[in-house]
């Protein structure tokens, strides 16, 4: 029913297997196919059915997709008091809610990301996933 997938897994100190992301992705992808018995697939690969269901949910949520990288421009900017004051909240046209033009700086390991302005949620999600993937790759 399914192609052979290598089940090599590193073991943690507690003896629990730590399966590679590629292995999880492939099994989750197979578990999403119509007509596939998740219990049988788990049994064929020596896994707990609940674990495979968890991997399938993560796959459907997009957690196993490779991170999408965005173009980055590195600049060196001298900050003055005037430019720092520009990052404060600005009153919007309708005066109901202020528009915040701020700065987000995230440091993970040796990676450092600085986002200025008001990024949308999708952009932040991509940045955080990329940083998480980079941090996991370091360990």
Give your account of this protein's structure.
- The structure is a single chain.
- With 139 residues, this protein is of the alpha+beta class.
- Helix content is 38%, strand content 13%.
- It has helices at residues 21-31, 38-44, 49-60, 81-85, 121-138; strands at 10-11, 17-18, 102-108, 111-117.
- The mean pLDDT is 75.
The strand order across the widest sheet is 1-2
The count of strands amounts to 4
Terminal residue distance = 35 Å
In this structure, how is the largest beta sheet organized? 2 strands, antiparallel
* Approximate helicity band: 25-40%
Question: What's a quick, concise take on this entry?
Answer:
This protein is α+β, with helices and mostly antiparallel strands and 139 residues long. The chain has helices spanning 21-31, 38-44, 49-60, 81-85, 121-138, and strands at 10-11, 17-18, 102-108, 111-117.
From the structure above, extract its key features.
alpha+beta, 2 domains, two-stranded antiparallel ribbon, elongated
Topology summary:
Layout: E1 10-11, E2 17-18, H1 21-31, H2 38-44, H3 49-60, H4 81-85, E3 102-108, E4 111-117, H5 121-138
Antiparallel strand pairs: 1-2, 3-4
Helix pairs in contact: 1-3, 2-3
